[in-house]
Design a protein that fits this description.
This protein has about 450 residues and is an all-alpha fold. Helix content is about 70%, strand content about 0%. The chain is globular, with a radius of gyration of 23 Å.
Length: about 450
């Protein structure tokens, strides 16, 4: 086996080699967790167990209709049990069965897709027997609704996680070049990027509630106390200032808050960004973790209505959007660290905000248009984006990262390399296909 070439001069000194041997020497022992890493994993396991225990305590606490928080304590309990079990169980598994360099290898995405379809059918059908308005005072109903939301959103996240990782595997050239080897992202970093996405949703909600609090005095001044909630909403939506504020908030403010919250975790995992693919995949996982929590909440709010059959698929698309946007930031951050081109991070953030803002604009237009024709056009546009543009944008982002990997290594793309065709998805990914000389 030939020795590895030197790292290009443009790579930062504190970065490991991009170009690595295909296999480690047979007599070399696999690396083990450092004492600091072991301590962090043990801490994560303890936190997970404590979250799960507290969640169980909330489930058994008597239900009191004193505030919205009291009503939804069973829902919070289900969420904490799920999060604690995920964090604690996976941390223990990583600590006992995996090393720091164990690569992430996805399972069969077809199996996870079939499971999601089954969960979608069962969960949607079961939700028809529930309604948050009718079970708000019944703890079993709230627990059942929360379980449906978490399980359906979790099945969706599992499917998308496997689908994205499998796309990376299938799109990588079938034969590595002489000096570029597909170095898979570490399993621990993929998992904790997803967990960070879950926690970042809470961070984003806190910031968004703070901003809403700033606007609340004006909203209250425009709402008459004698109105019912329905009439109050109609009156507020007739106010052009309120309408403009909603549009600006949804299209510009919320995407910025959420993307910064999700992408902040990439800095925490900067030591794991050894390749362009690492940045893209970890960003994708953080976005899916954020979308998992958000989708579970929206599915919970759709209980008791047949619209939930369609709502769940819309949430799948929104989860993919969250993954794509943070993936673009992650790819830009990895490029900035690998090549020293600092503008790459800001370019990735700009593209993420455009995609996120455009998606939110469609959703807002669908809600407040007041025109059946506009609503229908917007709905069709969102369906096209969900089924055609977003999946191809993810693949274009993967192809762009693969191309950047070879360019960074100074190696030509293999002759059998065939990226996805050019289109609007390449614009969203911030690049264009490069075809090798055949």
């Amino acid at each position: 086996m030939s020795s590895s070439p030197e790292v290009p001069d443009s790579a930062p000194d504190d970065f490991p080699q991009l170009i690595v041997p295909r296999e480690a020497p047979a007599d070399e022992a696999p690396p083990e967790w450092s004492p600091r890493a072991r301590l962090l994993l043990i801490g994560a396991a303890v936190i997970g167990v404590l979250l799960a225990v507290y969640g169980v305590a909330l489930l058994f606490e008597p239900l009191r209709l004193l505030s919205v928080l009291d009503i939804f304590k069973p829902v919070i309990g289900v969420a904490l049990v799920a999060l604690g079990g995920l964090l604690g169980g996976q941390s223990i598994r990583l600590l006992t069965t995996a090393g720091p360099e164990k690569p992430y290898r996805p399972g069969d995405p077809k199996q996870s897709r079939a499971l999601f379809v089954l969960v979608w059918l069962v969960g949607s059908s079961a939700s028809l027997a529930l309604s948050l308005d009718s079970v708000a005072s019944l703890k079993p109903g709230l627990i059942a609704a929360a379980v449906i939301g978490v399980v359906v959103a979790g099945a969706s996240a599992w499917w998308l996680t496997r689908w994205i990782a499998a796309k990376i595997e299938s799109q990588w050239p079938a034969f590595d070049t002489a000096n570029v080897v597909h170095r898979r992202t570490s399993a621990w970093s993929v998992f904790f990027a997803f967990v960070w996405g879950i926690f970042s949703s809470a961070l984003a909600v806190l910031v968004e509630l703070f901003l809403l609090g700033l606007a609340l005095p004006y909203i209250q001044s425009q709402a008459g106390l004698e109105f019912t909630p329905e009439i109050m909403l109609t009156e507020l939506l007739a106010n052009p200032v309120i309408i403009i504020s909603i549009i600006v908030g949804a299209v510009f403010v919320l995407p910025l808050v959420e993307e910064v919250s999700k992408a902040w975790g990439l800095w925490l995992f900067r030591g794991a960004l050894r390749t362009h693919i690492d940045g893209l995949l970890l960003g994708l996982m953080a976005g899916l973790g954020f979308g998992f929590v958000e989708s579970a909440g929206y599915i919970l709010g759709g209980m008791g209505s047949a619209i939930i059959f369609l709502l769940i698929w819309f949430r799948v698309a929104t989860m993919l959007m969250h993954g794509l946007t943070t993936g673009l930031i992650g790819a830009g951050y990895a490029q900035a660290r690998l090549t020293g081109k600092r503008f790459a991070l800001w370019s990735g953030l700009r593209r993420a905000l455009i995609v996120h803002g455009g998606w939110n604009a469609g959703g807002i237009l669908l809600i407040i248009s007041g025109s059946a024709c506009v609503s229908l056009i917007t709905f069709v546009a969102l369906c096209i984006a969900a089924g055609w543009v977003l999946p191809r944008s993810v693949r274009a982002a993967i192809d762009r990262a693969i191309q950047a990997e070879h360019a960074h290594a100074g190696a030509p793309l293999p002759g059998i390399w065939s990226p996805i065709e050019n289109g609007v998805w390449w614009r969203l990914a911030g690049g264009q296909p490069e075809f090798p000389t055949r």
